[in-house]
Design brief:
Layout lengths: L4 E4 L7 H11 L3 E6 L6 H5 L3 E4 L5 H14 L7 E4 L14 H13 L10 H21 L8 E4 L25 H9 L1 H4 L5 H12 L7 E4 L3 H10 L16 H9 L1
Parallel strand pairs: 1-2, 1-4, 2-3, 5-6
Helix pairs in contact: 1-8, 4-5
The structure holds NADP nicotinamide-adenine-dinucleotide phosphate.
């Protein structure tokens, strides 16, 4: 019997996709690693993993990648599993660059068909949409015998925050008086302090995916148990602190309100 096949998106070196490729390969699966720039997957190629260029928001690139996998697997008669890892954007909503946010929605949401961290409004929104769409996909693909798994990821130690498009408040931001606290949030230093090792993460995700009856909503990563407990047992607004944790002097907020 040919080995099971998995295609993984977003496999640039050092990220979750990269670690997942290595883990599935180690477990004997045929792995197609994909990224926009194949030069970022040289480490995987050196291990013998097949690499294919794929930009998930570029239709031509998607068709070419699908065709490449079909050819490589003998006409695509076999089944493959697809795992998507995508991108982030950390910025207060008021300061967000809409073009960057729209681009992220294209990658995170439209290409794929929560923890509410402050100042990641667009990112959290894109993940919430993915959450809902995954439930929908699960129902719609069930008659085709396709299993859909949602991995709700807590913090994982990767270059995620270093790869974000921008994490500095723009000039004139209303949050400027609290730039130290807000900048700390945007840099990810706070959330990354409890982050899970990326290889432990990949091993547990792969273990679940390869089960006969996988957990369909897998919560995994740093701080995720607390997020799961609050989201599951407490009321929706339990997350929200109306006073806010970021001190901005009253004079500054008045100024911001007038402008
Ligand atoms: N690390 C964490 O703490 C954490 C926590 C919760 C959720 N997650 C989620 O886990 C996923 C992976 O994150 P990570 O930590 O591995 O970060 P990462 O290293 O920055 O990985 C992001 C990957 O997405 C790829 N990507 C971006 N745009 C793409 C496009 N248009 N087509 C194809 N690939 C594209 C990037 O490729 P390029 O190199 O070409 O840009 C990169 O390989 C993300 O969805 C993230 O939201 C991570």
């Amino acid at each position: 019997m040919p080995p099971k096949t998995v295609l993984i998106t977003g496999c640039s070196e050092g990220g979750i996709g990269d670690a997942l490729c290595k883990e599935f390969f180690r477990q004997g699966l045929r792995v197609f690693a994909t990224a926009r720039n194949t030069a970022k997957m040289e480490n995987l190629k050196a291990l013998g993993i097949e690499t294919i260029p794929l930009d998930v928001v570029d239709k031509a690139s998607v068709s070419e990648a699908v065709e490449a996998v079909q050819v490589a697997t003998g006409g695509g008669k076999g089944r493959w599993t697809t795992l998507s890892t995508t991108r982030g954007y950390s910025m207060p909503l008021l300061d967000a660059n809409i073009d960057v946010a729209r681009d992220m929605f294209d990658v995170n949401v439209f290409a794929v068909i929560s923890a509410p961290w402050p100042f990641q409004g667009f990112y959290n929104a894109s993940k919430a949409v993915v959450n809902l769409l995954t439930d929908q996909l699960r129902v719609e693909l069930e008659p085709l015998h396709v299993k859909v798994i949602l991995v709700v990821t807590g913090t994982v130690r990767t270059q995620f925050f270093q790869n974000l498009p921008e994490t500095r408040l723009p000039p004139g931001s209303v949050y400027a008086p609290a730039h130290e606290e807000v900048g700390y949030m945007l840099s990810g230093k706070r959330s990354q302090s409890a982050a899970m090792d990326v290889h432990d993460y990949a091993r547990k995700v792969a273990q679940n995916v390869l089960k006969l009856r996988p957990t369909v909503n897998q919560w995994i990563g740093g701080s995720v148990s607390a997020v799961w407990a609050v989201s599951t047992f407490l009321w929706h607004t339990a997350w929200l602190n109306p006073k806010g944790r970021y001190y901005i002097p009253a004079s500054q907020t008045e100024q911001a309100g007038q402008s």
